[in-house]
Amino acid sequence: MSKKTTAFKRVENKFVVLEYTFDDILKTLVRYIPLDIFNENAPYTNIKTIYMEDEKFTIFQEYLSKRRFRFKIRFRNYGYNGTFNEDDFWAELKVKYRSVCFKKRFLFPRNLITPFVEGEDIFDEIKKLNENTKGLKKTYKLMKKLIKLNDLKPKLITTYERAAFQNKQKNIRITVDKNIAHRPYPEPSKQKTLNAIVFESKLKKDAPSWYQNLENKLSLLPQKRFSKYATGINSVYFPARGIYNFYTNYAETKIVPKNIEKSLILLKKAII
Predict the structure, then answer these.
(1) What is the pLDDT of residues 137-181, one digit of tens each?
(2) What average pLDDT does range 101-126 have in this prediction?
(3) Residue 83: pLDDT band by 50, 70, 90 thresholds?
């Protein structure tokens, strides 16, 4: 497993691209920002994500409720040329607080996902894979508490192909995703495909003028609300809602579930 950044804090902007192809977008982007290549034999990355949810889809409902403070837990796997390396998994805790995204993650063995979710303490194994990772035990314990408190289980698998761009200062990162597909966990035969290209910018400071011009040049459609996870839950579990429907009264908008309220207290102390 390769060592990569394990903590992030940034503002995310999401767009859907309709007028240009994946190749058109990449040709335009490389004029302004370098392609960020992790594997010299594969310019693009395949990503597989296992999302956690409870039986009532509470995490999904929190998204629909437009909470300014919410979280999700996922296990992410990276691959190249359509092949995934089962050893290259990450456990990720992603928190959104007042439009800013915080992410903590650590390397994770694929074969230990089920024992971990079921409450087994596997920290010794995690420690071996994540030597010198700052705050590892704190993040591990927090994720373990959140899974138990909310009775979370693997619920959705999302896969897609990604091209990533990043400047030398690492304060601007752009990703372009295609071939986005969702299926319920663990039923591979019930796959649903998202027929769209998703463009996402992740900024640590104000965007430069070239980036602002880029948005216009590519006719990017800014999304006030967009989530691969939410489109996946919609398409797989609630197809009658429509893939992109994030605006209905499906979720209660006033009352925060008690388990979520307790979770947010834990998160505020640990991350925000």
Answers:
(1) 999 999 999 999 999 999 999 999 999 999 888 889 999 999 999
(2) 94
(3) confident
Query: For the residues of the chain, what is the DSSP string, one character each?
Result: ------EEEEEEEEEEE-SS-HHHHHHHHTTTS-B--SBTTBSSEEEEEEEEE-TT-HHHHHHHTT-SEEEEEEEEEEEETTEEEEEEEEEEEEEEETTEEEEEEEEE-GGGHHHHHTT---HHHHHHHSTT-TTHHHHHHHHHHHHHHHT-EEEEEEEEEEEEEE-TTSSEEEEEEEEEEEEETT-TTS-EEE-SEEEEEEESSPPPHHHHHHHHHTT-EE-SS--HHHHHHHHHH-GGG-TT---SS-S-SSPPPHHHHHHHHHHHHHT-
Distance CA 157, CA 261 (A): 26
How many Cβ atoms are within 10 Å of 200's Cβ, its own excluded?
18
Q: Which CATH number fits domain 7-270: 3.30.70.3460, 3.60.10.10, 3.40.50.2000, 3.20.100.30?
A: 3.20.100.30
Gap between the Cα atoms of 172 and 209, Å rounded: 13
Mean pLDDT calculated for residue range 200-218: 85
- From residue 202, alpha-carbon distances to 61, 113, 136, 147, 188 in Å are 25, 28, 24, 27, 31
* Omega within 30 of 0 (cis) for the link into 186: yes
What is the pTM (predicted TM-score) of this model?
A: 0.89
Distance of alpha carbon 231 from alpha carbon 229, whole angstroms: 6
